[in-house]
Amino acid sequence: MPQSKRLIRPLRPVVHLVALAVAIAGPAVLDARSAFAQSGARVIATVPVGRAPLGVGVDSGLRRVFVTNSQDDSVSMLDGTGDTVLDTIPVGRRPFFHVAVDDVGHRVYITNNGDGTLAIIDAVSGGLADTVAGLDGAPEGVGVHPGRKRAYVTRGGHTLSVIDLERRRVLSDIDTGAFNHTVAIDAALERAYVSRSDPDVLTVIDLATESWLADLPATGHPAIDPLTHRVYLADFRAPRVWVVDGIAGRVVGSIPLGHRPLLLAIDAARGCLYTTHPADNRVTVVDMVGGRVLGTLPVGAEPAGIAADTSSGKVYVANTQGNSVTVIQGEACSDAVLPSPTRTPTASPSPSATPTPTSSPSPSATASPSSTTVEPPTAAPTAATATSSPPTAARLFLPVLIRESCPPPDLFIDVVLVLDASLSMLDSGPAGKTKLADAKEAARRFIAPLRLTAPPVAAGDRVAIVSFNTRAQLVEPLSSSASVLRIAIEGITAASGSRVDLGIRRAADVLSGTSRKGRIPAMVILSDGRVDAAAAVAASRDARALGIELYVVGLGPQHDAATLAAMALNPDRYFNAPDSGSLARIYTDLTTLLPCPPAVFWGGR
């Protein structure tokens, strides 16, 4: 099959912001008047699994649960009746957080993010049936269409690969547009829904023609209600779930939550939706029919993947830092569950010819769980204006403090990791891995020792991720969740260009828009090649004038050491990393240096 790249291009109107409110005033926040009503769901078990579990999938017919252990390169298979581990199945490197299950053919599909492969597990025997290669570019999401005998994998930041499950090979690639993440498949409608960021849209793909249909103004990791053909998206930008009418091809509303979700699961038979919240170690229970939050449940440390067993009503949550799975016994979430006209599947749904594409909304960070007002998407905010004053000599901590007393318990860092995502980062480093892989590993090491906390504790270090190539992308805003940050780092993909100056200015926008009280703003900039010296140094000076601490790391033998040193504005802030080992050590050392900048603690020594 020939490679397909947006074969059909319906008109994509460019709507001015003034007209935007009129064009999309229809979608509303679904009724939340009964928010936090009593939910019958309850935690019934915690099952130990492997290290850093990320994803969960359930074969409801077999009552078997499959959990990806990202740091063990394995999958734990659980018995859903007794909630015990039956076996551990070796797969590829770093199995990721999206698991697709064909519970008719009893096959489980898992992307191995670390080696660019797709693992296929036989759910009956519990063995690895096959591995499909050729998915380089950090595969992230996977969906399956049993009727077509196809799997669909997002990878490389802009590609949806079509895999022939009979021949076990890649058939074609569909261009989804840049910065794609996960995918959900509605086989009845012959549509794939791909989450994207920058712009924050849901891209709709026609699977019959393998062509682009529309970009809808909603973002987040998607899941589909097979009975109503609605698509629900856990918004990774704001505390809400978007709701999309898959048949009509339009956004119909959103459900406000208490905290920003990561992933979601749907129990269509009981009318329930469940979202994970790594920042506060909880799961939210939502009535899908009424569009209302029923309550939250405490689970393990940093919940990520989640899946529901529709045969039993059980819900399984992967706790990344807890190395465990929380088992929830769910109950009916609405009086309007089956039998009901609103929950009855149509025999042959007829989708609209072309979903309505509109400009993407700006996710609101202030959605309230008890909101009852209509919330049309709003215009995108402009970047934060750099108006902070340069730091003065009046500091909270005096130079007489010594290293042994630092970091102080009431001073924290807000740091942006500015990572090079140019094509040269795909070249191999001395250790045989790509330089981009080395950079991601260094970033993970940087995060590990930080003082990250979860709400309601407000104090703690926070990290944001910015990548740059032709342009700069805010991959993850300031976050105190290690699992959210790790997933964001893994999703970085390379493209042409090396505009480090844009990366610095994007990071400065992030830091200038946050509260500084009790926090040290900083950025760590990594580049492996030559950059526009004048633009890069000017951006660095502007950021330093805002009181932001800058640290610059040059990776490999080809970087422009003179320019990077000039960007650091201080020879002590420039670091040369000729190989992956030294890069990892530099980032580890910076976790000690950042909370204790010399200008604050040793009089600039």
Main attributes of the structure:
Rossmann fold, Methylamine Dehydrogenase, Chain H, globular, 2 domains, 605 residues, mainly beta
Molecular structure report:
There is one protein chain. The protein is built from 8 helices and 35 strands. By secondary structure, it is mostly beta strands. The chain folds into 2 domains: 30-333, YVTN repeat-like/Quinoprotein amine dehydrogenase (Methylamine Dehydrogenase, Chain H, 7 Propeller), CATH 2.130.10; 403-601, Rossmann fold. Strands 32-31-30-33-34-35 form a 6-stranded mixed sheet, sandwiched between helices. Strands 1-22-21-20-19 form a 5-stranded mixed sheet, with no helix packed on it. It is globular, with a radius of gyration of 24 Å. Mean pLDDT is 81; it is low at 1-28, 31-37, 338-348, 358-405 and 599-605.
Specify the number of helices. 8
Q: Average pLDDT value?
A: 81
For the termini, the CA-CA separation is: 64 Å
Order of the strands making up the biggest sheet: 32-31-30-33-34-35
Give the tally of β-strands.
Answer: 35
Q: Classify the secondary structure makeup into a structural class.
A: mainly beta
CATH topology of the largest domain: Methylamine Dehydrogenase, Chain H
Overall CATH class of the largest domain: Mainly Beta
Rounded to an integer, what's the Rg over CA atoms? Answer: 24 Å
